[in-house]
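Hey,

Quick one before I head out. I ran the complex with 4-nitrophenyl phosphate overnight. Inputs first:
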Amino acid sequence: MYKVLFVCTGNICRSPTAEGVFRELARRAGVADKMHVDSAGTHGYHEGEPPDSRSIITAKQNGIDLSGQTARRLRLDDFTEFDLILAMAQSHYDFMDRIRPEGSKAELALFLNFLPGFEHQDVPDPWFGHEDGFQHVFDLVHSGCEVLLDHVMDAQPGKLR
Ligand code: 4NP
């Protein structure tokens, strides 16, 4: 089993989209039963809520179902539970790098560092922006998840194949 966690601020837009897309891509690749996929927020403002309706609608228009998800806050035990934790933006990476317990096993990475041409970039926060920001986020997340899944399948053959 390989465990992947996506982290953004509120866990209602970017990281739930990544969770839904990555899980679906893993299903299509035939590795869903060997992969645990989850998401969390650095802050608890929206704990217990479903994803933002604009994220749900955009994902649905692109064939991905986010409707069963519930926002939660990042926990310290996530750093020992998960193999790979993806920060949707540099601020999330910096926050997690500060609080991660010493010796915890999770590999921490900036999500877009996996997507050639987008290294060191943030997935922009669509929450305060315009409607089309959600499609832009979806497209970035989808492209990043495709590359990330290939990377995980290459790097973790023992756990996934
Ligand atoms: P997310 O977007 O981090 O992609 O879920 C946000 C959602 C809510 C807030 C910030 C970002 N907020 O400040 O409540």
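The domain at 2-160 is CATH 3.40.50.2300 (Rossmann fold).

Talk tomorrow,
K.
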